[in-house]
Amino acid sequence: MNDSGVELLAADLSTDRLHAALRDPALASMNFLNQVANRFPKAISLAAGRPSEDFFDVDDLSRYLRIFCEYLTAEKGADVELVRRTLFQYGRTKGIIHELLARHLACDEGIDVDPESIVVTVGCQEAMFLVLRALRMDEHDVVLTVSPGYVGLTGAARLVEMSLWPVRETKDGIDLDHLVEQIEAVRAAGKRPRAFYLVPDFANPSGASLDLKARHQLLAIAAEHDLLILEDNPYGLFQAEDGQRLPTLKALDTSRRVIYLGSLAKTCFPGVRIGFVVADQRVAGADDGGSVLFADELSKIKSMLTVNTPPVAQAIAAGKLLEHGCSLTNANVREMQLYSRNLRLLLDGMDRRFPRGDNHQVSWNTPRGGFFVVVTVPFLADNTALEYGASKYGVLWTPMSHFYDGCGGENQLRLSVSVVSPDEIEAGLDRLAMLIADLSAKELCTQ
Amino acid sequence: MNDSGVELLAADLSTDRLHAALRDPALASMNFLNQVANRFPKAISLAAGRPSEDFFDVDDLSRYLRIFCEYLTAEKGADVELVRRTLFQYGRTKGIIHELLARHLACDEGIDVDPESIVVTVGCQEAMFLVLRALRMDEHDVVLTVSPGYVGLTGAARLVEMSLWPVRETKDGIDLDHLVEQIEAVRAAGKRPRAFYLVPDFANPSGASLDLKARHQLLAIAAEHDLLILEDNPYGLFQAEDGQRLPTLKALDTSRRVIYLGSLAKTCFPGVRIGFVVADQRVAGADDGGSVLFADELSKIKSMLTVNTPPVAQAIAAGKLLEHGCSLTNANVREMQLYSRNLRLLLDGMDRRFPRGDNHQVSWNTPRGGFFVVVTVPFLADNTALEYGASKYGVLWTPMSHFYDGCGGENQLRLSVSVVSPDEIEAGLDRLAMLIADLSAKELCTQ
User: Fold this and answer.
1) What is the CATH number of the domain that holds A81?
2) Is there a contact between B271 and A11 if contact means CB atoms under 8 Å apart?
3) Do A350 and A270 share a structural domain?
């Protein structure tokens, strides 16, 4: 057979015969952002949302493994054989560090849950997938989500073909009136609102948080309209220095209304890929006529998806937890100071460059923690503006429109403070200010 | 609010409002098998298919990590910062050990592929999910699968709601006539046969293998009917001592007809949860009008599912690969001897206990490698028989009916040799022979 013969026979494919998620604009936009970052490697990035690398140390990994093995021996009474089997073999589908995560939730978040209601996942992304896959029975099931929102939730919804209905955000968190309107609109459309997804603390991308009153109101709305709440909390620990943390929704939840999505990506490290979900809801209709935990239903799905979260990765995360008495607050003292300092430097730097009296055309929010600040500008902050700024001024940021599943955020950009030094923040803001002046002037000319 | 008030408001669920996969008999059957094993912990298990634990050593893990770091420095020119970032941060969605896996495929399997066509996954289970999710565009897409077959493939198909059509197995592998009949039947039903899944070497559960002629015929059928082949190869390395390995389908594939599913669960260890998929098919219809690798489309789905495979787990697997020059054959010399010896002991033990001349009612196949042997018995080898044998004779095995997605295998049982000692094989077979005599006599009485 000659080369061209081989080509004719080749078992090749076409995107129009593959799943629709692969043609989704959300995916294309994330790829675009990565490509821009790769094309301008010397630009200062106020776009990257990954955690600081200042405190990573390769030697920690072996120590964490050793600490977990010691815990298995001392606390769980494991012999050498059981320690080996725990690390090397397949393991419990729901994970092997659920008891340690329950201790973390109790001491850092004031959440008291049965460890059996925890499923350890391959990052929080898998947790989102498990929950949506379970809840999406047919095309009538809908998940409501804060908009602008986290693209990971959108991705998981696309994979299970579940409709997303957006709920507006306000400067102070969620527009609760809009939430109720949307719940009613979903029902009026003959569909079922199953859950509402949000990040109540220092949201990605907006940095917004719900105050205590809004948290209680949200729980009341969820109860009244029989809706689950999917609470995602990757940044809650990173409260700015002068603030006081508010209780998570799960800590306030007295009726198993909240499914809590946890991530260790920012509090341990991303490369361990450990997330988890707390699903203490009871599910009626088990084979024996009784009820099981929703976590056990999610575990069944996990058994068909990844079988179990790598025990070696769980062991490393557990070692870090154990080294700090299962308190991620204690484990992240330096990180909290770094992010808090960077956020203050960014906000102060914005104040100095855009005095509030002088220029009402540029404004921004002032999150009290987390990684992100949103800036509103008097021009289209789109992909073209991003590429222009990268090429002419050497600064990267993220167009907020990427976080809307449709239209929105056209005049806004997201700045991130997590992986930049103080000098980079100052230089980055200088460059951003030049870009804003440049594009604002152009906008003025075209008006 | 009192306790009963809380109960009334509780956000609880019911299985009839969750995804249908959660009510699937395949899931219930796996749970049943695990429960039986847990209820009879002292029984000798000829059921467990996990790999041998004889050669696991916790100290290996830190060494593997160090070897991978040295490779990054020496071969990839990474500085300390890049080594840290590679292990601790988010990473390339398709994985960080693709080049090492390509070397393994070249030296162990005679498969030459561009490392870019490899996606590293959280076990082979995630690889199956990615492929089926990509191929399942709508309800017309069908995957054909060998029956009896691996339950993991069934699970992944359930999650994406993709129809499975069974293809019969023969003593010598696949019934290729039945495959063609089924392809035509799928088309006649107005549906699209997208792929055919099989384990060509020492299949789970049957132990059957395709001979070389059948491999060529299968590739020809796939080309003629424009079907992809999903080749799953977890056991191929474990050829019995006296045999010679046959080329994998992927090694024979000259037209990108085969998607190769790899697993390191048996050749490295399960707890690292490293699998991979080789998807070198070209996909037309990219945004720029060109084509991309199917691996890149799978990577997009992975970005919505688990983001990336834990770099720390990839690093550990890579360390083991590097320590053996990327040859898993070299890395598994002791394991190959152990499995080969156990298989011979089991087959010899069956010969001694059931002389072929004496008793035609008990028969079994003689796989030339792998973990499994299938025994045909003159009674119903079902869950009841399994529980009876566990309780009365202290021996565990797996009813073959669990591997049929419907009916089949009612008089067959699967024996596994992977995680038992020679003494356990002898004692287990003694017990099994007693059970078989007991139930055969009962069956005779009821006739």
Assistant:
1) 3.40.640.10
2) no
3) no
